[in-house]
């Protein structure tokens, strides 16, 4: 694994973000062919599975650590595809997956972080968010759903909440899937070409594309204001699906290696237990 993959993709805290400076078809940290990337991801899958099992096991002895993978991006950027890819590495029993849609009436009556806080993984689990609390400074901002005085305060509220959770054992892996407008158009057209994909298309997708500049501005603000030492953002070019999968897999691997969870020792004498089983 490239030792600097996180450095290559991380949005440095306090730095200005200009999305046009980041080609959506780039492959930072990888200079091989698609076939090589696919094989590399398959090869590291075994280590990811082992690390997940160790994280889950460590929780049985009181280890509070857990991981939250946040996936944000424009429509068709590959959030759902990335979720499927990530799950293929892991035991679903140790994962908690949540796709955040428009808030319900009950959720609207609560603080905007309420529904996300309830979806956080337990100790030892890996949580995967398809969209997240950041919708409340993205869609809400672009569509003017609440006053600017309200959504503008949320950046600092998010930073404080994420920092508290990081101090309590949450490892944040926040990924912005950066897709180009041309690639999005091709993916939307591909959905219309296939009857089995029509359910994934909505006429609203066309209306949302008209707001592309507004969304770009909103995403740039999120990356600038909410990439912190406790919870950095990673900008992953997503025009190439195979690279997207390669990058997210390596980001997860790097963080899980840093955690280095260990299997807890049994609270018994294995030799005595073996003898008891044999006697029985």
Strand content: 5-15%
What percent of the residues sit in helical stretches (DSSP H or I)?
40-55%
Tertiary shape:
globular
Q: How many β-strand runs?
A: 6
Low-confidence stretches: none
The H/E string reads HEHEHEHHEHHHEHHHEHH
Task: Label the structural class.
Answer: alpha/beta
Count the DSSP helices. Answer: 13
Strand order of the largest sheet: 1-6-5-2-4-3
- What about the largest sheet? 6 strands, mixed
Give the integer mean of the pLDDT values. 95
From the N-terminal CA to the C-terminal CA, the straight-line distance is 48 Å
Radius of gyration (CA) equals 20 Å
How would you describe the overall organization of this protein?
- This protein is α/β, with parallel strands linked by helices.
- Helix content is 48%, strand content 12%.
- A 6-stranded mixed sheet has the order 1-6-5-2-4-3, with helices on both faces.
- Helix 2 packs parallel to helix 12 (241-259).
- The longest helix is centred in the N-terminal third of the chain and has 26 residues, at 34-59.
- The model has no long low-confidence stretch (mean pLDDT 95).
Write a compact overview of the structure shown.
By secondary structure, this protein is of the alpha/beta class.
Topology:
Blueprint: H1 5-9, E1 10-11, H2 34-59, E2 66-73, H3 79-87, E3 95-99, H4 105-108, H5 114-118, E4 126-130, H6 139-142, H7 148-151, H8 154-167, E5 170-178, H9 181-193, H10 203-209, H11 212-226, E6 233-237, H12 241-259, H13 270-279
């Amino acid at each position: 694994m490239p030792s600097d993959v996180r450095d290559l993709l991380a949005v440095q805290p306090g730095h200005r973000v200009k999305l046009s400076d980041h080609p959506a078809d780039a492959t930072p940290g990888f200079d091989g062919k698609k076939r090589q990337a696919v094989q590399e991801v398959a090869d590291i899958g075994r280590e990811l599975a082992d690390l997940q099992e160790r994280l889950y096991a460590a929780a049985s002895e009181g280890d509070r650590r857990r991981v939250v993978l946040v996936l944000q991006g424009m429509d068709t950027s590959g959030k759902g595809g990335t979720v499927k890819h990530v799950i293929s590495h892991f035991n679903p029993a140790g994962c908690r997956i949540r796709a955040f849609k428009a808030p319900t009436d009950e959720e609207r009556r609560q603080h905007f972080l309420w529904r996300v806080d309830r979806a956080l993984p337990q100790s030892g689990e890996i949580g995967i968010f398809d969209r997240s609390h950041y919708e409340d400074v993205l869609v809400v901002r672009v569509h003017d759903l609440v006053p600017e005085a309200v959504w503008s305060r949320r950046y600092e509220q998010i930073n404080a909440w994420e920092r508290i959770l990081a101090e309590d054992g949450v490892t944040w892996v926040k990924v912005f899937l950066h897709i180009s407008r041309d690639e999005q158009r091709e993916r939307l057209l591909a959905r219309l070409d296939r009857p089995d994909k029509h359910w994934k298309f909505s006429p609203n997708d066309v209306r949302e594309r008209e707001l592309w500049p507004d969304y770009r501005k909103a995403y740039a603000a999120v990356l600038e204001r909410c990439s912190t030492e406790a919870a950095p953002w990673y900008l992953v070019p997503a025009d190439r699906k195979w690279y997207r999968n390669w990058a997210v897999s390596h980001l997860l691997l790097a963080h899980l290696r840093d955690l280095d969870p260990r299997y807890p020792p049994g609270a018994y004498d294995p030799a005595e237990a073996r003898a008891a089983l044999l006697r029985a």
